[in-house]
Amino acid sequence: MNDPSRNIRKTITASHWGAGVVETVGGRIQSVAPYRDDPHPSRINENIADSLQGTARVLRPSIREGYLRNGPLSRLGERGKDRYVEVSWDAALNLVSEELLRVRSTHGNEAIFAGSYGWASAGRFHHAQGQLKRFLNAFGGSVRSEGNYSFNAALVLMPHIVGNFRDHVKQATRWRTVAKEGRLVVMFGGLPLRNAQVGSGGVGKHRLRRELENCVQAGVRFINISPFRGDAEDFLEAEWLPPTPGSDTAIMMGMAHTLLTEGLVDQSFLDRYTVGFEKVASYLRGEPDGQPKDADWAAKQSGLPAMRIRTLAREMAAQRTLICTAAALQRADYGEQPLWMTVALASMLGQVGLPGGGYGIAYASEATMGCVDRPIGWPAFPQGENPVDTYIPVAMIADMLLHPGEAYEYNGQKMQFPDARLVWWAGGNPFHHHQDLNRLRQAFQRPETIIVNEINWTATARHADIVLPVAAPLERTDFCGGTQDNSLIPMPQAVSAPGEARCEYDIYCDLEKRLGLGVQFSEGLSSSDWLERMWSELQVNAERSGIELPDWEDFLSGDVIELEDRNKDAVFLSDFRSEPTRFPLATPSGRIELASDVIAGFGYSDCPGHPTWFPPRAWQSSTAQQFPLSLLSGQPETRLHSQLDNGAFSLSRKVKGREPILIHPQDAEARDIAHGNIVEVVNEYGRCLAGAVVTNQIRPGVVFLCTGAWYDPDFSAPDSRDRHGNPNVLTHDLRTSRLAQGPASHSARVEIAKFKESVPRIEVFDAPVITNLA
Ligand SMILES: Nc1nc2c(c(=O)[nH]1)N[C@H]1C(S)=C(S)[C@@H](COP(=O)(O)OP(=O)(O)OC[C@H]3O[C@@H](n4cnc5c(=O)[nH]c(N)nc54)[C@H](O)[C@@H]3O)O[C@H]1N2
Ligand SMILES: Nc1nc2c(c(=O)[nH]1)N[C@H]1C(S)=C(S)[C@@H](COP(=O)(O)OP(=O)(O)OC[C@H]3O[C@@H](n4cnc5c(=O)[nH]c(N)nc54)[C@H](O)[C@@H]3O)O[C@H]1N2
Ligand SMILES: [Mo]
């Protein structure tokens, strides 16, 4: 496949969105083509060449001008606006070392925050967070973050009511069994295949489309309860029921009320496998608050017809039904509630633990979920022990920076924010992932020093004092094994890193020497030594399970290895169903907790002891009239979050360079907005430009702006208007509830108008101004 005479090389690579084949000519990436054995490869690979070789690459260590001139305590210049000065690696790492030592000796390791949330890149060894954490652990530790932006409410709630949420994903009922035994799939938030392109850590083959096609062929019927029709592929031939965003808990309650009043509840299931149903039933009947949660009531909250809520409940009771609830529903105000109500509804139907029945959460969030599993675990770069115990729930980053020392509540605990003087981010983009970016900008002015390791000049890098340019996956050697995938994919280095970008491992080795840490971080090994060590660990582990793996060198120069999936007919909670005393759940009662004394005992008015209806905050807010449109900000089809937004595929879908925003024809007409117009999206938190896509695929009253357009604030415009279309200038930074403190990005409200001024140029795809110290 290589042609040395024309200097053409092809190498295999891997990413969170799948394997690919890199073609280089003369040391430059020409393309990343689909991997031949992947039945539905992702087009996200088409972004790689332009993005990694683009004008936004960080090429040399860069220091913010005000910081370099006057040092960490001077507060000269404003992060996000300042220029940068390029310096040598030696100078940059001296600054990093001095600053680490200063902060540690003045304030202790508790003043170093390295929560550093983000997806980084695939690769078992060069994992940005793992590397940073191991290094800082050797330095005495740092404050970490707990949870994620994906399904934080589930991570915290589920252990109280069913058991570990990770097991929900790992042991999810397989689509194979749905095709065999299921009749009906009711999807809250759909099953968007655009999201199932991605699996954390990597994917060998994209299987979900075929699995779902098999279900359709077997006669399984799909119902898409989502404001966006595109959350169900056409081939599913799903009935579309578009609710008002944030109303799913009410819909589920309307269904549950129907089951209750029509004698359709499986009482023997509830008796044997659950506790607390009486509290739920009493709430559904309206005993505590005088409001029965019947289908008519649910129709008022959701905009769905009451009759369809009733008939669907009957259909669900009459046949084998799987309820799928998208992770999106819990990334919203009171996001714990749709989860708890999903469990309650599925329990009332009594099909939990039966093939093709029960419930699943976050099915299309992961390419592999319900499709495949790995027979053995993969090795990881060991992080060592963190001597610092302090952590924050991940989505409290702005609160932590703005309110050091302040008390807050979380999952039954009284907590206190640490005082973070030094923030180090590697492998994440908070100016992509966090809500209310104007507030985050304020918060990012607070620390004394911010260090960011980045491939590109993201908005986060532009808010740092010290920016360390790092190598991207194609520029280093590694191997890929997805969190739940059964493929091992070699990742031989395809090209060298541009400019002075370096592997993070080598940066930490250098710092280890400067700081006199001995070999605590590196153990005196090179990155290739580590890779060989990790691979031989894997070989030994595999052998114990009767799997033979080739030696490292043969693997690295070879092809993808697919291991056997030994769990093909998994049915979630089938063990528990068959023998509840032998396989109790990890809950206080050992059963499904439809009401939880533990949660009730926390006394949280925003998350009481049983599933409870709360309208989203904005419904009751004084600005409800002013900002009448619900804003959904789901995942982008053309990229992974903000990664590679300056690549060809991502750019190909922009509207005049802006992120597309979907709007219903009625809403567009009422505002004199035409398809292709540049619009301004506004609320009390901020504003951005976007490109109107007028479509009847979205419910009236709802607009949809995907995440991931690189934040590009125009400081000369009102509210530092984002020129590009990043929805997080419009989302609030209030969390789900005190229980999970999860992000609630899907609960935003906005108004939209045609943008009549001249449309400014996008600047974030160029590097910031680089200057010399005069
Ligand atoms: N409004 C709204 N906001 C959301 C969501 C939503 O639904 N709506 N979804 C949320 C969810 S589910 C998530 S998971 C988050 C995702 O948020 P993030 O994971 O922070 O987003 P990414 O764009 O993947 O950021 C990864 C960054 O790491 C960099 N990177 C890649 N590889 C490496 C490496 O090897 N080393 C270093 N140092 N850097 C590297 C990339 O250039 C990129 O800037 O966003 C959340 N934000
Ligand atoms: N291509 C691509 N795929 C990805 C990612 C990516 O960045 N790019 N990110 C990955 C990550 S980290 C994660 S966590 C997952 C996230 O997976 P999800 O959480 O499922 O993703 P979202 O796109 O936020 O939401 C899915 C759909 O839910 C619908 N929805 C939103 N709010 C409501 C509501 O209140 N009610 C109902 N019924 N529906 C609602 C929206 O129409 C949206 O399209 O995706 C993963 N997959
Ligand atoms: Mo996520």
Describe this structure in words.
By secondary structure, the chain is α/β, with parallel strands linked by helices. It folds into three domains: 62-149 and 377-562, Rossmann fold, CATH 3.40.50; 152-364 and 573-602, Dimethylsulfoxide Reductase, domain 2; 617-754, Barwin-like endoglucanases (Beta Barrel), CATH 2.40.40. The chain is built from 25 helices and 30 strands. The strands form eight sheets. It has a seven-stranded mixed β-sheet. A six-stranded mixed beta barrel has the order 24-28-25-27-26-29. A five-stranded parallel β-sheet has the order 10-9-8-12-13, with helices on one face. α7 (175-181) packs parallel to α8 (208-217), α9 (248-261) packs parallel to α14 (336-349) and α12 crosses α13 (306-318). The longest helix is centred in the N-terminal third of the chain and has 19 residues, at 89-107. It is globular. One ligand MGD binds next to loops. One ligand MGD is lined by residues 150, 188-190, 192, 194-195, 197-198, 225-228, 231, 243, 245-246, 248, 326-329, 332, 364-365, 632, 634-637, 640-641, 746. Pfam families: Molybdopterin, Molybdopterin_N, Molydop_binding. Belongs to the prokaryotic molybdopterin-containing oxidoreductase family. Its cofactor is Mo-bis(molybdopterin guanine dinucleotide). This is Biotin sulfoxide reductase. It comes from Cupriavidus necator.
Summarize the structure.
The protein is an alpha/beta fold. Helices cover 28% and strands 17% of the residues.
What key attributes describe this structure?
774 residues, alpha/beta, Rossmann fold, Dimethylsulfoxide Reductase, domain 2, 3 domains, 7-stranded mixed beta sheet, 6-stranded mixed barrel, binds ligand MGD, Biotin sulfoxide reductase, molybdopterin cofactor binding, oxidoreductase activity, Molybdopterin_N
